[in-house]
Amino acid sequence: MGLISLRQLTGNDLEKVRLHRNAPETNHWLENQRPISAESQAKWFRHGGHKSFRIIMLGDEDIGLARVKFNEQLHCTSVGMDIFKEHRGVGLGKRAFREVIREGAKYSRILDLWVFWSNVAAVKIYMSYWFEVDTASPAIHYPRYANHQLGFYPYVRMTKSPDSSGG
Ligand SMILES: CC(C)(COP(=O)(O)OP(=O)(O)OC[C@H]1O[C@@H](n2cnc3c(N)ncnc32)[C@H](O)[C@@H]1OP(=O)(O)O)[C@@H](O)C(=O)NCCC(=O)NCCS
Fold first, then answer.
1. Structural domain containing residue 46
2. Rounded CA gap, 152 and 6, in Å?
3. Which of 54, 81, 88 to mutate to test the pocket of ligand 1 (most atoms within 8 A of CB)?
4. Nearest to 81 by CA among 28, 139, 125
5. What's the whole-number mean pLDDT along residues 128-152?
């Protein structure tokens, strides 16, 4: 079992991250499903968009992408996590999220995220670290295909306050 760590995203990571974000298995769970072109990503990078992201590492191998962005208006830090496809389903997401929370806690006491409630693996992880549904923020219903059928799926805000347990 190697050590999980986070590192800054560099220009060398762009193509890998872009392919990961555009892959249907990842894209399905993102709020914004528009495919990212190499040109728009390069522009995003030049403007510093990558500063809100980290590469998740297991030992010296890249295994995923984390988002950590302080929100000045809400005074909380938005976090997020994807594990690269070939590393999913073996417990790494659960382990990695502890590091994502630690990184987020450097910026603010309250953390938040948005997740599709039907994303069982993600919701399980977030709840295991004591994130709770923010009942004050109404769920947004986005169209998604599941089993070849179009439906409207709730996308919910979850928050974690400093007095909750679990990392
Ligand atoms: C969601 C995601 C980060 C989870 O990471 P992971 O490494 O695959 O998850 P883990 O192996 O740590 O499993 C976490 C839990 O979910 C369960 N799980 C894993 N894959 C599952 C699946 N496909 N369906 C249902 N449950 C699943 C595991 O059994 C585990 O539950 P447990 O704690 O009760 O044992 C990863 O699958 C992913 O990147 N998905 C695509 C992008 C995405 O959805 N990002 C999150 C957006 S909010």
1. 4-160
2. 34
3. 88
4. 125
5. 95
Look at residue 50 and give its three-state secondary structure: helix
**Phi-psi region at 89: left, alpha or beta (left = phi > 0; alpha = psi -120 to 50):** left
- Say yes or no: CB of residue 122 within 6 Å of ligand 1: yes
Q: What is the pLDDT of residue 165?
A: 66
Which residue is closest in CA terms to ligand 1's atom 32?
A: 124
Does 166 reside within a domain?
no
DSSP 3-state assignment of 74?
coil
Residue 55 has pLDDT above 60, yes or no: yes
> Domain holding 99: CATH number?
3.40.630.30
- Residue 83 in contact with ligand 1 by CB distance below 6 A: yes
Whether residue 27 has its Cβ less than 6 Å from ligand 1: no
How many structural domains is the chain composed of?
1
**pLDDT of 167 strictly over 80:** no
Give the model confidence (pLDDT) of 13-38 as tens digits: 999 999 999 999 999 999 999 999 99
Tell me how far the alpha carbon of residue 120 lies from the centroid of ligand 1, in angstroms.
7
* 131: in domain: yes
Q: Return the number of other C-beta atoms located less than 10 Å from residue 131's C-beta.
A: 24
* 134 is a domain residue: yes
Residue nearest ligand 1's atom 17 by CA = 121
